[in-house]
User: Fold these one by one.
Assistant:
Number 1:
Amino acid sequence: MNLDRAIVEVDRALRTLWASAHSVRPLPGGDLPDVPLDREQRRHVVGLMRVNHCGEICAQALYQGQALTSRDLVVREALRGAADEETEHLAWTEQRIAELGGHKSLLNPLWYGGSLGLGLLAGVLGDKWSLGFLAETERQVEAHLDGHLSCLPEEDARSRAIVGQMRLDEIHHAETAVAHGAAELPAVCKLAMKGMAKLMTGLAYRV
Ligand SMILES: [Fe+2]
Ligand SMILES: [Fe+2]
């Protein structure tokens, strides 16, 4: 990697972790009323949105790592395109956390570093495995967002609109990965990914 490229990649990482993300699309549900939530509901919703924000930090790092090691230009471009959409998810969840007076996960740098390493490794294994890893990640995120939609307060239409649109985007990302030749991961890999996601979501909900 030449110096210019290295600077661009480090800048990308620093902006993801410490700058506010920007969205081209408007905030889903941005015109819906912000119905007051009681203290316990607000704590719960902030926890869920912090988990989602942390997941998007991980997505940025995974995509960055995979794009860096991918051998195919078309795949690299697809990864960059999906990463742009994940940046919007980052912006939406960040905005909702701020609206509710919460804070982002303190462990984000740790998860970013781990996810970048995983993305680099997946890319090194070859594009079909890298895309398979991506497709499985997106499917697990979709299931996880389904879980959030079932436990977010019905009256919190703003949070529900954000999670609903993210879910649709993640489904599309998985389909894109499959269309570019994703391989089906072995069951043991899927299980390991679920275990790691459980650890991350459990911690991010609290800190
Ligand atoms: Fe996302
Ligand atoms: Fe995604």
Note: Helices lie at 3-18, 39-69, 73-99, 108-124, 127-151, 157-179, 187-206.
Number 2:
Amino acid sequence: MDAAPTLLYLSDMTCREFTATVGVVEERAVCLDRTAFYPGGGGLPPDRGSLAHEGREVAVVGIRRDGERLWHDLDGAPPPAGEAVTGRLDWPHRYGVMRHHTAIHVLCGVVYHLFGAVVTGGQIRSDRARIDFTLADLTRERVQQIEDEANRVIHEGRPIKVYSVSREALAAMDLVRTKEILVPEHVRQVRIVEIEGFDAQADGGTHVATTDECGRLRIVKTENKGKQNKRLEIALESTG
Ligand SMILES: [Zn+2]
């Protein structure tokens, strides 16, 4: 079997259950020929969930990159190689991550458009997220302005489109929202995530389909991380 699995989450971010064939196995880990489990990266945590085989279910507690391989770490014995399994994501966890990730993208666009600030770091969880910007001055008025503008974009329910462009085409686009270019040198086709008509970024992560799925955004904390560096922490009101 080919070492590199088909990454279902790249094309279908609503996939929460899938069937796959077991490839190589370790004592408590398996590789699959296809998977919807996001391995983490880009500030996002990995997915968790379970694999079911012949009525027996084992929890997926971690995802590990190993060259082209993706190991699904299990909390029990793995299903045998060559067998069909059903993978299920912990959907509340994944959906929370997608909402917060999309909200962070809205925020990135807002601070870039308002102040020309770019991102220096961030961390996204299923129930909160934070992001650092190159911003010298973060007054109370500015925080309010950022929050209001972000909520306006969220409320518009803009579709999130995913497509890929060549590295050369990327260079010609105005997509510099991070201080360093994060796309590795060997990557020829770059995945673009666009909040339609608002902002686009090179991104390998998972997102919701429209901005209004984020729900109302609140900036719950700001922190001074240096003269030119400010941190914003956000929370989202549940969309029910
Ligand atoms: Zn992202």
Note: The chain is about 20% helix and 40% strand.
Number 3:
Amino acid sequence: MQAGNAALRGGIDLGGTKIQAAIVSPAGEVSGEARRPTPTEGGPEDVCAAMAEALAEAAEAAGVPTDSLAGIGVGSPGDTNELTGEVAEASNLPGWTGSFPMGQTLSDALGATVRVGNDVDVATEAEFKLGAGKPYDSLLGVFWGTGVGGGLILDGKRWTGRGAAGEIGHVVVERGGARCPCGRKGCMEAYAGRKAMEAKAREEHEKGTKTKLFEIMEERGRDRLTSGIWERALEHDDELAEHLVHRALKALGAGVASAVNLLDVEAVIIGGGLGVRFGEPYVEKIAKHMHPHLFVDERPPAMHVAQLGDLGGAIGASLLFDE
Ligand SMILES: [Zn+2]
């Protein structure tokens, strides 16, 4: 059978800082890609326009018109409805207060069928089908970045619960503990999320704690502490950075081990901006911090870094057309 363009799919990963688009074959090969910064102003229409532009550019790079694609999958933050393509409560996107028909809007702009899934779920699925999770039937994806997202594969299938499963960032690691960006207290993300770590670093810096974190940020012309800046500060043996990363690792150890105690998955895949940047040595550190909390400690799960890296989200989104 001739595969042709009809077998190619589009994938869009909508993040809080960037939009990554890719044209992907059923085997997961990427033939064109493009990225755009996520708009910081405006509303859902502006975000969808930037997404459509990125996908059109990726399609041009692959040499295919967008309306010839077998479908376009989107991994989006917020409350995503796979049946209707509506996205609500995407609080890290500009002006996204109510529910917005993302699927229909993109479909009208690009002339192809669009399916919308949760960003972390689709990235976990990509690792399961094409990446570090291939050898396993059950796994937990932990995306350690701006926040801490989680995705689950149980018995070979994505587990989404009633739509909100996998929110491992909001597993409680300390009752009455640090304030989480979600507004609650003591969540794992309140210690391990990049955004929460940055807030804590700013607070300590303002109190007079010495750190190179903000000098490095200024040198690089950035306005936030990216994963690269944290890495650089650790290379300089910056004490505050070391302290806050250690605090994050302890929280990840407790939270991920608790999830493993509940689910007994075969493997844990660590992805996300910080997870991929820090890589293997830090996955080992997370495993070490998990160990005291594991109920069955002689048989810990396999631990891996996400293999598909930055493109995992877009590739995973294209897999929404595999089902
Ligand atoms: Zn929380």
Note: Residues 170, 180, 182, 184, 187, 189 surround zinc ion (CB under 6 Å).
Number 4:
Amino acid sequence: MTENILVCVAWPYANARIHVGNLTGAYLPADIFARYQRLRGRRVLMVSGSDAHGTPVTVRADAEGSTPIEVYDRFHQGFLALFQQLGLDYDLFTSTHTQNHFHVSQAIFLALKKNGYLYNERQRQWYAPSLGRYLPDRYVEGTCYLCGFTNARGDQCDKCGSLLDATLLINPRAKTDGSTPELRETEHFYLDLGKLQDNVVAFLNQRKEHLRPNVLRQSLGQIESEPLHGRAITRDLDWGIPVPVDGWDGKCLYVWFEAVIGYLSATIEWGKINNMPDAWKDWWQNEEARTYHFIGKDNIPFHAVIWPAQLSGAGKEFGEYFEGKPCEPLTLPYDIPANEFMNLEGEKISGSRNWVIDGLEALTRYDPDPLRYYLTMNMPETKDTDWDWSGFVHRNNDELVATWGNLANRVLSFAYRHWEGVIPTPGVLRPADEEIIRKIEAGFTTVAEQFEAIHLRNAISEAMSLASEVNKYLDTMAPWSEIKHDKLAAATTIYTALRVIDSLKIMFAPFLPFTCERLHTFMGYSEPIFGEQLTQSVQDELGTHTVLGYSPAKASGRWVASQLPAGQTLQQPAPLYKKLEESVAEEERARLGNKQ
Ligand SMILES: [Zn+2]
């Protein structure tokens, strides 16, 4: 069994806040999967960071009269706050604007160049003499050559929706100062994807059995209908990673080329921060290690085609440029569990129309676990799903509160009250007790199978149906009446119920970490289930950046059936979840579409 697991999470772009669709698409499933793997006692590393570069950040900075650094850092701080409040346990959440990431990205670039996978081509691009620089597509506006709309952007027309070739715009003007640009020749590096196609196809074929259908469709399927061709990886922009070649000042690496390299550079940075500079090789130069990429469907080509092309093309030369000696080949992704999209009340989520549920804002009104629960039950694993506020209220009340929360609370409260705050000593277990223990213990296999296949909805549904079994057991045994005539029988029932709840707690913990941790404390344990998040300032030549880190739990390998010790001291229990009023759905729907 593979012990080294790398959980790579999509890099949020640092010019927009994170909403529930982003959370259920990539960030939350990654955390749930990583937590499960931690419980198995495997060596897990979960990494990501803010995608800091590119024109969306510079355009916003210009519009606000601020700097790209300010824009990126503001959103980055928001991401850190959200991930801490929602309990997304990154071992490292950093950013692409670090010296380390610059160095690693440039090493990949130089290795590809040395191995003959880059070529140069000249292209024509708008140049503003008044500004003394080339204009990226988003920096030039003009009349759409397809529909005549006079305010089309260089990359896209907002009227007819077409993607545009900026050089064909009629009456072009520079967005910054309105001046008239001129077309000039400029030279760029291209990644020769045609030459790398055989590597990519071989990589995909090896993983055909377990890659999701949407991933295969957008990778192998696409290549079959249209072979890969070269793609420009540099651009005329100064906010980004400089092209590490003499005479290429004023140009930088395209953000789509360097951001994916962040999975590798973040692993390296994690090792540096923790004084294990070579630890990254345990995942990246280890055939046994498994790398999982949690992303949304819009990111599939970059992770299933371009990223493996970059990694296989860089090869052992990466080591030459990174640390002055050749290295082993870099590990290619093992799986790419890309999710579809989540809609909101039947319509596409849209920040500009305020048809959105902002992650941080939702956390001001709801606890993290009910949000995590609904986002998991509705995870778009195989098709688009819908956030529906009535559904949120019902799932919270009928499943989380009624099936699981009440079960834990009423058994614990009963034990606490009648056995002086300790776990009762059972009599000899009866067939019904043994049967429920056996049923729940089997969950450590059946739920695990769903986790390993990254069918997280199935995993949580399986755990919830096991909780229903325990409710049935209690209804049959009725310890509340047993205690009136036979206290030992009641003790046996309550002990059995506590023991299976203790097991269910571990199965639910990856999904509902905050409440399972509380339940764990109520049951008298002192060592927490999971480790702790921490933030840290890291300084380098580019300045200071804040990262989110993780200090692992002392105990590991908790994915085993409970052997609950009788006599263990309980803590005063309290309900884990709150019932929501039906009116909540109405109130929430009224917020949508309104500017605040
Ligand atoms: Zn148009």
Note: The radius of gyration is 27 Å.
